Structure formats: structure tokens, C-alpha cells
Amino acid sequence: MATAMTPKKAWEAMGKIPHLKRVREGDLAPGPWFYAEPDDGSGLWGQWGIKAEPSRRGLTLLDLMRAGDEPPPEHGFATGQVRGAGMDSEMGLTQVQYVANHQYQVWSDNVMALYEESVSRQWSATKDIPWETLTPLPHDMEKALCHICTFLTRVEFGAADRLGVWLPRIGYAYHEVKMFLGTQIMDETRHMDVFRKRALANGGGLGCTFSTATALEATDTPIALDLKAIFSDFNTTSFLIQVVGEGMVLDIFRFSEFLGQTEVDKIIFQRVMQDEARHVSFGTMRLKYFLEHCPDREEEIGKLHNAADALEMNQTVYLLLNPHLLQASAILAGGGVTGMDKGYEAYRQLYVQVREAYLRRCEIAGFPRRDRCVMPPDPPF
Ligand SMILES: [Fe+2]
Ligand SMILES: [Fe+2]
Fold it and tell me: So what's the pLDDT on residue 213?
């Protein structure tokens, strides 16, 4: 059994560490890393002589690439090694089994540009919304919007949680992807923030949440959806969250901006839409890269089609046609609870737009679903 550590024992133990001992004995010279060169065989230094120049927007990740930064490798490292850096093999680095450690699994050709855009367009739900200009809405309209905000708060949690677990699972060789996901999680955090604030800022309040199973159980057709399998694979996780789910959310945001009754509501939805467009753009281009570079394309396409069959049904029922979102949106779109017939008509158009935009994204990604899409072309309401 290890004895309890005390400051005295710790000092003695640390004092035996060779480089600290050397300093105490008067040898102040730096270690071999200081004398190493990039190609001297020591592996102790990565690059030298690189002078990245800022471009129009400042010093971007793309500017680093242009200057000679190490490009992402096809296969990642089995350690937390920094891409382009050398490695002190004497000290070593802990071996890590990353779940997603191949470029084809995580990369998208627009990831660096999206990261830069994301960083430059961060905004604050606290300061950047003119909350003080909010004006009261009729009771039914305020109630409908508060309910939509409650629903969306819940959706934002889902996206952040499902992607967040992938940060430690993606290899360090793909730092741009990890950085982009970091910004996306910040975006989702801000979306939770802004929707909650909107629900509590104009005399209304939070509506109700509900089990995700409720809407699905109402359909007597079972959906063969293995969520555990989907969330254990980055390709299907990203397809579910960043293509199917967030694609729908993007169009729901657009619709809600159109329905916004106050300047504040319009600004909120414009802002979240801009963020959401990045998430969907990453998801779509990542899928394209995946399908163009994965080693067993036919097998992966088959797997993805099976997942898409279930996910289209799941996300349509859970998200787009969820009674809470559908009814609240119909009230807003109809100008009040008495105009819901008009509101449903508007929502039918949204449904058709959502389906079409999804099919177009699949086509851009090289994954055509038009002949197979489970979402019925006619709105089922
Ligand atoms: Fe979001
Ligand atoms: Fe998002």
C-alpha cells in the first residue's frame, strides 16, 4: 500500500527527477530538444522556418497550411501527439485508442473555413439581442412562441450532448475537426441560452417538455432504429445530428424567423440560423468526404441507407411533426389560435421545403435518397 504523500516526501521524490536534479547541481543547459533540427533523425523537433502570413481575415488555419503547416494524415496517431510536432520518445506519450482516427471518418474540406467563420461570428445572447425593445404579444401568440423556445432548448441540448462525447474520441491529428466541434458546442450552448431567455423575457415562460418516445409510440409502425449503434459511429452520429436533424432545424429556424412578431424574435432566429447553417454545411461536406474516401464504400452506403430509412422516420415524427412544435407553429403562422387552418397550410409548405432541402443535401454529399426517402412527399396532416 502506498504511504500518504507529504510535501517533504514530494520534494524528495521530485528532487530525484533527472532534469530537476541537474538544475540543482548547476547544469542549466536545455535538453536535447533545443539542439534538435527537423530532419536530424532525433524526432525531437517538428518544423522550422515557417512564416505564416495573415490574409484578409487575419491569420487563419488556411494561412498556416499555405505556409507549410503539416496537412492532416490519412491515418491518425495512437497518441496525443501534436500534428507536425516532433515527439520526445524518451518521455513517451500515452497510447490512446481513438474511435475516429482516420481522416475519412471525420474530415470535411470546408472544416477550416467553417471554424474561422464560427470564431469570427460568435455572438452573445446577453448583449447582442435588443431585449429592451420587446413588446407584449397577444396571449396565444406569446404562449406559442414560448412553447417553440422550450422545444428548441431541448433540441439544442441533444445536439451538444451527442457531439460533445466525440471530442475525446477523435484523434489529435484532426485538430481542426475538434476545434470546429468545440465551436459548434458553444453555438448550441448559446442557442439554449437565447431560447431560454426569450421564453422568460416577454411575460410568458417555459412550456412543457416531453419524452421523445411519446410521438413515436403514437405511430403504430415500429421504427427499427438502433440508436446505440448509430451513436457509436461518428459517420452515423454526424449524419443523424448534422445532416438530418440540424437540416430540419435550419428550415424550422428560417420558418420561425418569417413568423417572428417582434424585431427581437426575427434577430434571434437570424442569428441562430447563421450558426446552424455552418453545422449543416460541415455535416454535408463531411459525409461527402467520407463517401469519397472510406475504404469499403459499398458496405458503408448500404449501412447508411438503412440508418437513413429509420432516421428520416424518426426525425420527421420526433422533430418536424412533433405535436408541440407543429401546433405552436400553426398558431404563430395563423396569427393566433383561431387562424390555425391557415397556420397548418403554412406548415405544410415548410414540410415540403424541409424534405426538398434534405434531399438536395444528400445529393450534394453523393448520397442520393430521392428514390428511397421515407419522408412522404405529401405532408401527412
Ligand atoms: Fe443549435
Ligand atoms: Fe446546431
Answer: 61
Q: Report residue 111: phi and psi, to 5°.
A: -65, -35
Q: How far is the CA of 156 from the centre of ligand 2 (A)?
A: 7
Tell whether 84 is covered by a domain. no
What Å distances lie between residue 280 and 28, 189, 211, CA to CA? 53, 17, 25
CATH number at residue 277: 1.10.620.20
| Domain-located, residue 65 | no
pLDDT tens, residue by residue, 276-292: 999 999 999 999 999 99
Nearest ligand to the CA of 152 is 1
Residue 79 located in a structural domain: no
**Which pTM was predicted?**
0.94
Give 182 Cα–ligand 1 centroid separation in angstroms: 13
The total number of structural domains that make up the chain: 1
Ligand nearest to the backbone CA of 190: 1
Identify which ligand lies nearest to the alpha carbon of 238: 2
Enclosing domain of residue 311: 103-364
CA of 184 to the centre of ligand 2 (A): 7
Express each pLDDT in 140-191 by its tens digit.
999 999 999 999 999 999 999 999 999 999 999 999 999 999 999 999 999 9
**Ligand 1 centroid distance, CA of 268 (Å):** 12
User: Measuring CA to CA, how many Å separate 240 from each of 243, 305, 339, 358?
Assistant: 6, 12, 34, 12
How far, in Å, is the centroid of ligand 2 from the Cα of 324?
A: 20
Cβ-contact 180, 282 below 8 angstroms: yes
pLDDT band (50, 70, 90) for residue 206: very high
CA 330 to chain centre: 29
In a domain, 188, yes or no: yes
